[in-house]
Amino acid sequence: MRAPSSRLVCAGCGTVADLADPYPFRCPNATRGDDVDHVLRRELDFSSIRFPEGDEPNPYVRYRTLLHVYHLAMSGGLSDEAFCSLVRKLDESVAAVDGHGFSVTPFRRSAGLSDALGLSPGGGVWVKDETGNVSGSHKARHFFGVLVYLEVAELLGLAPCDRRPQLAIASCGNAALAAAVVAAAGERELRVFVPTNADPVVLDRLDELGAHVVVCRRGGQAGDPSYRRLLEALADGAVPFTCQGNLNGLAIESGETLGWEIVSSGAAVDRLVVQVGGGALASSCVHAFAEGVELGALAAMPRIDTVQTEGAWPLKRAFDAMGACDATLALRFASHHRSAFMWPWEEKPRSVAHGILDDETYDWLAVVEGMRRTAGRPLVVDETTLEHANALGRETTGIDVDHTGSAGLAGALALRDAGEIADDERIAVLFTGVVRTAPARRRKEDEELPGTRHPVAQGLRAG
Questions:
Q1: Per-residue model confidence as pLDDT tens digits over 397-409
Q2: Going by C-beta distance under 8 Å and a sequence separation of 6 or more, which residues neighbour residue 319?
Q3: Where are the domains of the chain?
Q4: Helices and strands: H and E segment counts in the chain
Q5: CB-count burial class (<10 Å; 0-12, 13-18, 19+) for 442
Q6: CA 82 to CA 79: how far, in whole Å?
Q7: Does residue 296 carry a pLDDT above 90?
Q8: What confidence tens digit (pLDDT) does each residue in 227-263 have?
Q9: What predicted TM-score, i.e. pTM, was given to this entire model?
């Protein structure tokens, strides 16, 4: 296998992932307690790559030359045609499970929101609408690229086809739903660790998709109990099918397709205000914009501001702990002293924007890098602002976005009220999740629910 035009490198210790590793999602040197922020990041050989052009609707086909899995496939002897065929086949399987596959999502100026914020015709608010994406949020973007990697690894003989390990994720919301859709499309078993207060809507859909659900209780320990159970499953050999960058760096790369679409749109936004839970969305956007600049498709990165709730704001706590130290020195120190900056939130977090209540911002360092590079900052917004932003966003755009999905807009409102957004600024926000409703029900704690595979997925397996 010849060397590909990309590689996976740990941002914490500098280790380069082995090309022969069938599951290169975590740094091989990552050990619990070493306090190094191990996150595998994809590095491109920019001298041999151009930023993709054209109007191909499937983002994984359009932006394939920026994906590590594409370069791995090419170095292993697959043709460009074979790779595109594989992506389209998997996308058709996703459509069979969820009703439609992946396509470039809308990104346009909202006249209603721009007027509501009092911005001039030269400025305004641009909204990227992910509510119509696979499984109703942006989350599936992170998982599909990982599924493509798993398939390519089997085609190249790096991973066994007859002994597929179980996939695992800790989530009680959009990430779990997206992972279950993509796993079902790939005919792969998925275990989902959820807390005791998991949304009944999510549990019902996970059952339909054939996911194995495990409900976890806190048991008096700090941190997310679902995440602890996930780590145990990974230690037992499960594959991380998760958005946490420290557990699966390729999920961050796969999410970059959203940022690349903004770059391709030609809308030169001045600022991105993005909601942060675990950090996957924000770090994906940071990397996408940085690569857009490196490849000459973007003149400069927009300012990156992040949003968390009063219920939990571990990212701002970490950002503030760095103070005004030299950026390079501070980031280098933080990458080897993670616990001095990032640790689980001490109290059980609560907010109407429950999808960003992660105890930790797992891919925090990349997000901090992005903010410091662009003179951005972390925001903490109150519940009143979150409610107002959601009502305003839905009324002016007609998009049925939930409170988590409109939290970026809440940050923009707070910045505008504070006089930090000029009349002619061009602001980008992402509406990341659709509202979900269904009858309520509860699960017993620590109960594993094997589920029955969704009829469509059963047909895919049988075929």
A1: 999 999 999 999 9
A2: 368, 371, 377, 378
A3: 107-136+250-431
A4: 16, 13
A5: exposed
A6: 5
A7: yes
A8: 899 999 999 999 999 998 999 999 999 999 999 999 9
A9: 0.91
Q: Answer for the pair 155, 72: CB distance below 8 angstroms, yes or no.
A: no
- Strand segments (E) across 130-174: 167-170
Q: How far apart are CA 337 and CA 152, in angstroms?
A: 36
Tell me which H or E stretch contains 239. Answer: strand 239-240
**Number of residues that make up the chain:** 463
Residue 323 exposed, middle or buried by CB count within 10 Å (0-12, 13-18, 19+):
exposed
Q: Secondary structure of the chain: what % helix, strand, coil (to 5)?
A: 40, 15, 45
Does the domain at 107-136+250-431 match CATH 3.40.50.1100? Answer given as: yes
Backbone torsions φ then ψ of 384, nearest 5 degrees:
-60, -45
Token pair for 1: 């296998």
Within 8 A by CB and 6+ apart from 254, the residues are 67, 141, 142, 143, 144, 145, 146, 284
* Residues 318, 324, 329, 333, Cα dihedral to 10°: -30
Which of 401, 111, 60 is CA-nearest to residue 250? 60
Give residue 407's Cα distance to chain centre. 15
**CA nearest neighbour of 164 among 177, 179, 183:** 183
